Amino acid sequence: MPDDALKYHYRDVTDDDLLKLDGLCAPKTQAAIDEIKRHRAQAQAMPDIPTPMAVMIADAVQEAKSAGLLIWQYAGVRSCPICAKSCTGYSGRGRQRRANTMAGIELADRFIRFEGRPAIGCCRSCMDAALPRLREALAGVEAELPEALMGFPPKFKRYKNMKCSTCGWQGHEGQMKRSPCLMGGGTYPATCPGCGANNHLFSTVVNTIAGFIVLPQN
What we know:
This protein is an alpha+beta fold.
């Protein structure tokens, strides 16, 4: 289901029960039904792989389409949703005490993360096994997909939508002049192409707004 709260609310309801409400329910419940349908369609399309792996692939494809982006981030996994292997116990003491995890991969870009629980991902061995089918499912999806995931440089780049509070210009961050970051190297979108106003450490005049655009890479 799309979120843990909805899953808790329907903890005694099976997927088959929810599917009977298809087209007859509130938007949030319909979102859960649509996700069940995507998972089942992916499992039917790939009957030679475990169903949990097909579910992860379906989630990754949906994330790429809706967010315009997937990442490839190494992350500790407490329990793998595909092979069901899990780690128990803790290591360290006091503030350094952490749950034991195994090597895993996170595919979803999230501002808030839960340690040991990738939003879309699994342990490294399952991800290696899933990669050929994941790449097959993502072929043709117009999204920013990392080279580590696809095996070749990204064909598309996702840009966040931006708006200047000084002149009212609206566009995307790819149209802005970039400036070097003060720390850590790299650059950031700094200058409005409409009026030349600049974002600084203590003053942001060109702000991120809802939405994004995905454009082919040259």
